[in-house]
Specification:
Blueprint (H helix, E strand, L loop, with lengths): L3 E6 L6 H14 L4 E4 L2 E3 L3 H10 L5 H4 L2 E3 L5 H7 L6 H14 L2 E9 L10 H8 L3 E6 L4 H14 L4 E7 L6 H11 L6 E5 L3 H4 L1 H7 L2 H13 L2 H11 L3
Parallel strand pairs: 1-5, 1-6, 2-5, 3-4, 6-7, 7-8
Helix pairs in contact: 1-2, 1-11
């Protein structure tokens, strides 16, 4: 395994970028030379720019995000609209460049693990090719048990190491949110790393930008993650930190 982690999700919009930015800032606070990558993006490059800011690095945008398609659609559909293909070779070249330059890489995926990247290629295959363990971000709200267990099963079938699953979002007040972590743990050997407690400014990055600077936002995210001891332990294991 390479040093670092691939942050994937049980769905789109579950908070992968929030977690990726928080992890990158937390590793930076641990004095780790951390790089970031968003291999594939569609619609816009806001997530990539947030990763840049959180890690505090200066890299060519096309290296950190080698594949960008304008339409806010699944990658293969967005690529077809531009008469292009999802060229994973470009991703691998960028990854190996960054991997040599940084001690640890935080890579953020797109959508969930079964998002198609080609006729018979999925995000799963990308994770496997990069030889990184997966950190799964799932919803804290009702419905997460099904989505989470299916995602974990897909990763396990491909023998991809899983750091754990982190639940995110919601208000923390519903019965489902209060019981989901324990209920999920009852059905999987994968460690449930906890729940990222709801913080309104962090759940809506655009709204947060109006309330606080990016720097302050990433610090808040890093502190929230550092309060989760199981997550901290998993991150240190993935990054080779004693």
């Amino acid at each position: 395994m390479n040093k670092g982690l691939f942050i994937t999700g049980t769905d789109t919009g579950v908070g992968k970028t929030l977690v990726a930015c928080g992890v990158a800032r937390l590793l930076k606070k641990w004095n780790i030379k951390v790089g970031v990558m968003k291999p594939i993006a569609t619609g816009d490059r806001k997530d990539t720019q947030r990763l840049f800011q959180a890690a505090g690095i200066d890299e060519d945008l096309d290296i950190v995000n080698p594949l960008f398609f304008k339409a806010p659609l699944a990658p293969v559909i967005a690529a077809q609209a531009e008469k292009r293909e999802v060229d994973l070779d470009a991703v691998y070249r960028a990854y190996w460049f960054l991997q040599k330059k940084y001690d640890v890489l935080v890579v953020e995926g797109i959508g969930g693990v079964k998002v198609p990247l080609g006729e018979s290629t999925y995000v799963l295959d990308l994770i496997q090719a990069l030889r990184l363990p997966a950190l799964v971000v799932g919803r804290a709200t009702l419905g997460t048990l099904n989505h989470s267990l299916l995602t974990l099963e897909a990763l396990e079938q491909e023998k991809i190491p899983i750091l754990g699953i982190l639940l995110n979002g919601g208000t923390g007040k519903t019965l489902a949110e209060k019981t989901n972590p324990e209920a999920l743990q009852d059905h999987t050997p994968v460690q449930v790393l906890g729940r990222l407690h709801f913080q309104k400014a962090l759940q809506d990055p655009d709204a947060a930008a109006r309330r606080m600077s990016g720097e302050a936002r990433y610090e808040v995210a890093a502190r929230a993650l550092q309060r989760l001891p199981l997550l901290v332990k998993a991150l240190k294991r993935a990054c080779g930190v004693a």
